[in-house]
């Protein structure tokens, strides 16, 4: 009897725990449930949805090559998932369902409802912890709590990691043809925003594998030195692929092991720094499960809920549209809107600028990022925003407020990145691009800063000092 694999954000054939487990039990039928209205309610925008759609199409081609038919359904709400999957199980005569778990709260609840519904129907549904080395709850502090700070989490992660935890799963062998026809894939309906040029982000596991290989061959060993400079392509740009599972963290870690004499925590400084980022990714997934309030739009640091955020629409729009008068912030925001991706250093700079200099609620920035990011992923995005706003785990102490101009001169010393995204400043000498004062730029059409750094910093400090700690 056939076994169903329900694909979600794990769009690959290789090293896929659910697919490998299903293929051991019988011929596989793949299912994809497109849940656009709910994904949009969760804030995912056109870039991610477009990439997701193209990823499903690439997956379907791969599955066809293995003789696995893919069924496709449209649902409006996660609540429809159990009945839809049961209907498919009955139709194809399947007795078991496998899927890889997702960790935000609504996704956990949806999956629990599916497991319960299958159980009631006398069918087996199994959720695999495929996107993490340790299932949430497997790594706990000495007191038995989830970690709320990264460094001890990372130490425990390395200490307890065994080779089996990151061993690759087999890709299934081609199977005899089933008497089940695949469904045609529907087009993406017209969305409010137009997605960025898809050629920037070719979908599928081949494109992901290619990126990983190129990164490790040319940039991995320089990662530590280059990762903070947005004008250099020093990072992997694998985040969209990891977010939708077109590549797995195990494939990334195995590739590092092969390059780094079998080590993850020691050896080449660039490669080990990169591994650390993959551990951050896992950390924020554990946080989402261990502290579900973060999935309910709440601050991790409860006392910061009382912060008196400013409600200033004009400032918020200036930030969104890259018109703050701080070139590094504006260039970064334009990179985000034009490409669906922003360099990590600049995510920190822009998020801190919104939440500290403008003192605007980090949740508004979180929503804006998710709407534009092709790698938009709840756990990492929420974790990053709460870090920048000093409301989260490892929160940057509230008094540590990046000076955007200093960040700019340190991490884009020649103003190359600024010139790329702010052509109106390209005519200025590189060093003058960081803080083009009005009289200097004369006829150049670039706004004056919307806030003064020192005054804005003082305002943010006041607001944070007024909070009572727990
Ligand atoms: P690399 O430097 O090559 O890192 C490799 C991988 O590690 C990344 O692809 C990503 O999967 C993971 N990773 C790296 N840094 C982090 C981090 N700080 N937290 C969690 N995982 C990390 N990342 C997302 O994947 N989706 C998001 O929606 C997202 N939103 C963010 C919002 C803010 C405010 C901040 C500060 C960070 C956010 N990040 C997010 C984390 C990070 O900025 C991106 O993962 C990274 O810039 C992606 O580029 P890369 O693939 O070249 O990363």
Automatic annotation (TrEMBL):
One Pfam family hit: DNA_photolyase
> Which cofactors, by name?
FAD; (6R)-5,10-methylene-5,6,7,8-tetrahydrofolate
Tell me the domain of life.
Bacteria
Q: What is its EC number?
A: 4.1.99.3
Record site feature (Electron transfer via tryptophanyl radical), residues: 309, 362, 385
Cofactor binding notes = Binds 1 FAD per subunit.
Describe the reaction catalysed, as an equation: cyclobutadipyrimidine (in DNA) = 2 pyrimidine residues (in DNA)
One GO molecular function term of this record is: deoxyribodipyrimidine photo-lyase activity
Q: Which NCBIfam families match?
A: PRK10674.1
> What's its job?
Involved in repair of UV radiation-induced DNA damage. Catalyzes the light-dependent monomerization (300-600 nm) of cyclobutyl pyrimidine dimers (in cis-syn configuration), which are formed between adjacent bases on the same DNA strand upon exposure to ultraviolet radiation.
Q: So what family is this one in?
A: Belongs to the DNA photolyase family. Belongs to the DNA photolyase class-1 family.
Query: Could you tell me what this protein is called?
Result: Deoxyribodipyrimidine photo-lyase
Record organism: Halomonas aestuarii
